[in-house]
Design goal:
This protein has 15 helices and 14 strands. It is α/β, with parallel strands linked by helices. The chain has two domains: 239 residues, Aspartate Aminotransferase, domain 2, CATH 3.40.640; 134 residues, Alpha-Beta Complex (Aspartate Aminotransferase, domain 1), CATH 3.90.1150. The strands form four sheets. It has a seven-stranded mixed beta sheet with strand order 2-8-7-6-5-3-4, with helices on both faces. Strands 9-10-14 form a three-stranded antiparallel beta sheet. The radius of gyration is 23 Å and the shape is globular. The two termini are 45 Å apart. Bound molecules: pyridoxal-5'-phosphate. The site of pyridoxal-5'-phosphate (PLP) has 14 residues, from helix 4.
Length: 455
């Protein structure tokens, strides 16, 4: 690329890449823009050749660059290089930890059949555990959470007391509502019973303090496209003592548990993105928390019957005070993800809200899956005891590195009108059937679509 062309490239214009077609992007938990420095490193690597398993000079050079990335990633998250297993993303890392951990433990002792996961895990963990239960004799236990989404430690403790637990998996921060789980206590309880613990840290790295060694975890998953690296990059960080049975078989790469030619470009892009995200984490956590609080407070002022899901806002947004001493240097279970604001808006359907926001140029999410165009009630909200109707009226704004005050102001300006329209559409859909001869004055007022337009 020529210098002039590079200056014109969106990746070169300041630090915020241009998001084509989106005015206000508040769906960073779904995926966040690739950082310009990372895109540059990735592109640079793509121009090289060499399989890290080859013996020639190009292969040895690729191996050296790969191992540098492993060291860089490990240092950023408080792990040893040998603990890093590169994967294609968070889903693969979760599958390897849950299936691989279960198979290895059960292989050593056939009585270890229980897979215990929190009821609000991402499908990458939940569906994996369900698959083991349906096809491989596992006894799946969904650990309860309270009305804020915080894990019920009493349930875990009682389960561990019964014995037979192969593996425990509890996410670090939840992707829908942003609650941070009490991992310190989870690890303490599980280890006292001799049970390994995996955590899906996909939404934690770069957002809250993450230090693998201090966490005491046996394994944790991370994903590149949630922190500024390309989609298709990720890692499982796993202690050498955490036995894993391979999920994929082949050339025996990555300690023999994750076969497949190693993606050097992806690994290097991931390692740089993790390093940068972790270096900026404390400042970003404070900045995003302020923006999130401002968003939630302003929306509550302007729209009635709106509720924030999960623990109360913490003001500064810190995930809790950082007490002295290395063992407690990682605050866990005391707060929420700084960039996730999950709201339920009574009397409005998520799909109408999302469409209205989209028409106003704002990209948000309901936080949960939409199957065949129909918004499903989130399993997270249902596990928290919300009724299904309210669970279908969820809106998740997830803020990230490129989010500005103007983005928040745009939401606050657009949302009241969007909610009004969505509520009218909801009311029209749920209006009792018209009886013959009885005038329907509501129908005479016209449908939302007929009236059209967000305020
Ligand atoms: C908590 C959590 N775990 C796992 C995943 C899956 O990660 P990936 O998209 O890299 O497979 C996601 C993605 O949404 C997530 O939010």
């Amino acid at each position: 690329m020529s210098v002039r062309a590079r200056e014109r490239s969106p990746l070169r214009r300041g630090t915020v890449p241009t998001l084509v077609g989106v005015t206000v992007y508040l769906d960073h938990a779904a995926t966040t823009p690739v950082r310009p420095e990372v895109a540059e490193r990735y592109a640079e690597e793509l121009s090289r050749v060499g399989n890290p398993s080859s013996l020639h000079t190009a292969g040895r050079d690729a191996r050296r660059r790969l191992e540098e990335a492993r060291e860089q990633l490990a240092a950023a998250v408080g792990a040893e290089p040998a603990e890093v297993i590169f994967t294609s993303g968070g889903t693969e890392a979760d599958n390897l930890a849950v299936k691989g951990g279960y198979w290895a433990r059960r292989g050593a002792d056939d009585g270890l059949r229980t897979v215990a996961v929190s009821a609000i895990e991402h499908p990458a963990v939940l569906e994996t555990a369900e698959w083991l239960a349906a096809h491989d004799g596992a006894d799946l236990v969904r650990l309860r959470v309270d009305s804020d989404g915080v894990l019920d430690l009493g349930h875990l403790e009682a389960l561990l007391g019964r014995g037979g637990v192969a593996v425990v998996s509890v996410m670090w921060t939840n992707n829908e509502i942003g609650v941070v789980q009490p991992l310190e206590q989870v690890v303490h309880l599980a280890h006292a019973a001799g049970v390994p613990v995996h955590s899906d840290a996909v939404q934690a790295v770069g957002h809250v303090t993450v230090h693998f060694a201090l966490s005491g975890l046996d394994a944790m998953s991370l994903s590149g496209h949630k922190l500024g690296a390309p989609v298709g990059t990720g890692a499982l960080v796993a202690r050498r003592s955490f036995a894993l049975t391979p999920v994929e078989h082949g050339g025996g790469q990555e300690r023999g548990v994750r076969s497949g030619t190693l993606a050097v470009a992806g690994a290097r892009a991931l390692a740089l993105a993790v390093e940068l995200a972790v270096a900026e984490q404390e400042a970003e956590e404070a900045r995003l928390s302020r923006l999130r609080d401002r968003l939630v407070t302003a929306v509550r002022e302007k729209v009635d019957r709106v509720a924030l899901t999960g623990p109360a806002l913490t003001g500064s947004g810190r995930t809790g005070p950082v007490p002295a001493g290395p063992a407690s240097a990682v605050p866990m279970g005391q707060g929420r993800h700084p960039g996730i604001a999950h709201l339920t808006i009574e009397g409005a359907d998520a799909d109408a809200l999302l469409l209205g926001l989209d028409m106003a140029g704002i990209a948000a999410s309901s936080g949960s899956a939409c199957h065949a165009g129909v918004q499903q009630a989130s399993h997270v909200l249902v596990a928290m005891g919300r009724d299904e109707e309210l669970a279908r009226s969820a809106l998740r704004f997830s803020l990230g590195r490129t989010t500005t005050e103007e983005d928040v102001d745009a939401v606050v300006a657009a949302l009241p009108g969007v909610v009004e329209n969505a509520r009218r559409a909801h009311a029209a859909r749920h209006r009792p059937a018209r009886r013959p001869g009885v005038p329907d004055d509501a129908a005479a007022r016209g449908s939302v679509v007929a009236q059209g337009g967000a305020a």
